[in-house]
Design brief:
single chain; mainly alpha; three-stranded mixed β-sheet; 4% strand; elongated
Length: 387
């Protein structure tokens, strides 16, 4: 006995199945080919040829020229779009409409036939102008703009990224590129720079990052990075202070590092770092004495924590540290109760009693916008407190 099962399809289901089969039979095979590396090289070549670009930026104090294509900049950055294409339109005051008296109304009615003829002539002239060649709009002409916010190397890397979609991040220009990306609304580049920060802060690069922070400290991205750099300096204090590149930092940055309570460095290493920096400064400023220069750092060194034999063998013979400081340090080591703590660490006593401290000026989230210590300047001067 045979059993036959019959399935009935509704009209909608039948039409859907037939439509899907027809679409599968009609759809051709597809193949996608991408060559982004070739495109990036071509766009890099385009930005390197001034005759192919329509905007030139004069960047930095030296006004170094950097060329670009306006359409590419506008497509990638809304900030550049407004800068290059949206010129401010001047507001014009509307003149009040004159009151028409009876004589003017009469003249207007009597001249209507003549005005009709003139309007017809203007329409023919407008039609003829449409057939004439269209003049190039002013927005398509070559522009020259001045950029003072960023250094030439930084701005050139930004333009390269905008045109090609790739850029080589370096510790020397990282701060500038990150702030330029934030300034021009390139969020993906800013995030890439922020991600590179964690692996880029090393003993070899920390001084270069601090030196570049001085140039871009007014930007918010720099402030967050400075905090990370200083935390690294605190953790690797002895290594950082022994770097040759430490002598290249500005004087007030050196003072701020030596003044940090969190700095994990022994006091003799701090003294050697201050001595090394002062010698380097005197090499380029021969009119300054070494004793006057190093006098700006002595208040941040706790000499009583340096062993007595090191004080007498390494520090005292140099003749750079006032005799009173050496004696107070030795007296404290012999009897701590015999010496006023304020005479041992005067900088820390002043910081505790003042609202504006050396350490607070380092706070990247505070209101300060410069890396400068309280009451200090970039030009070393003699400090009479230690004499």
């Amino acid at each position: 006995m045979e059993i036959t099962v019959t399935r009935h399809f509704s009209l909608d289901e039948t039409s859907m199945r037939s439509g899907a089969l027809a679409a599968m039979e009609a759809e051709p095979d597809l193949s996608t080919f991408e060559n982004k590396s070739g495109l990036a090289e071509d766009m890099k070549f385009l930005a390197s040829m001034p005759e192919l670009c329509d905007v030139t930026f004069l960047v930095g104090d030296t006004r170094e020229p950097v060329c670009a294509v306006k359409a590419v900049l506008a497509a990638r950055s809304r900030v550049f779009q407004k800068m290059l294409y949206q010129a401010p339109s001047p507001q014009r005051k509307k003149d009040p409409a004159p009151r028409e008296n009876k004589l003017r109304l009469f003249l207007k009615r009597s001249s209507e036939p003549l005005l009709n003829l003139q309007n017809a002539a203007q329409q023919r002239s407008a039609f003829a102008q449409q057939l004439a060649p269209i003049q190039e709009p002013s927005s398509q002409q070559h522009q020259t703009l001045i950029i003072e916010e960023f250094e030439p190397d930084v701005f050139r890397q930004l333009i390269e990224y905008i045109h090609t979609g790739c850029v080589t991040l370096q510790p020397r220009t990282l701060l500038g590129v990150m702030n330029a990306a934030d300034y021009y609304g390139l969020d993906e580049l800013r995030r890439a720079c922020a991600g590179f920060v964690q692996c880029c802060i090393t003993v070899d690069t920390v001084c270069a990052l601090l030196a570049s922070a001085e140039r871009y400290i007014q930007y918010k991205c720099t402030k967050s990075l400075v905090q990370k750099v200083l935390e690294f300096v605190d953790e690797h204090g002895n290594e950082v202070l022994n770097l040759g590149s430490f002598t290249l930092l500005p004087q007030h940055v050196v003072r701020l590092i030596l003044a940090r309570d969190e700095l994990r460095a022994d006091e003799f290493t701090k003294f050697q770092a201050a001595l090394m920096w002062s010698k380097k400064y005197c090499d380029t400023n021969q009119n300054m004495s070494l004793k006057d220069v190093i006098g700006n750092f002595l208040e941040y060194i706790q000499f009583h924590k340096i062993p007595a034999n090191v004080l007498m063998r390494e520090v005292h013979p140099l003749g750079l540290v006032p005799y009173s400081i050496i004696m107070n340090a030795l007296a404290y080591q012999a009897d701590p109760a015999s010496v006023d703590p304020g005479k041992l660490s005067p900088a820390r006593v002043r910081r505790a009693g003042r609202s504006m401290s050396v350490q607070s000026s380092l706070d990247p989230y505070g209101s300060n916008t410069t890396l400068s210590s309280t009451g200090s300047s970039d030009v070393p001067s003699s400090d009479s407190r230690h004499n």
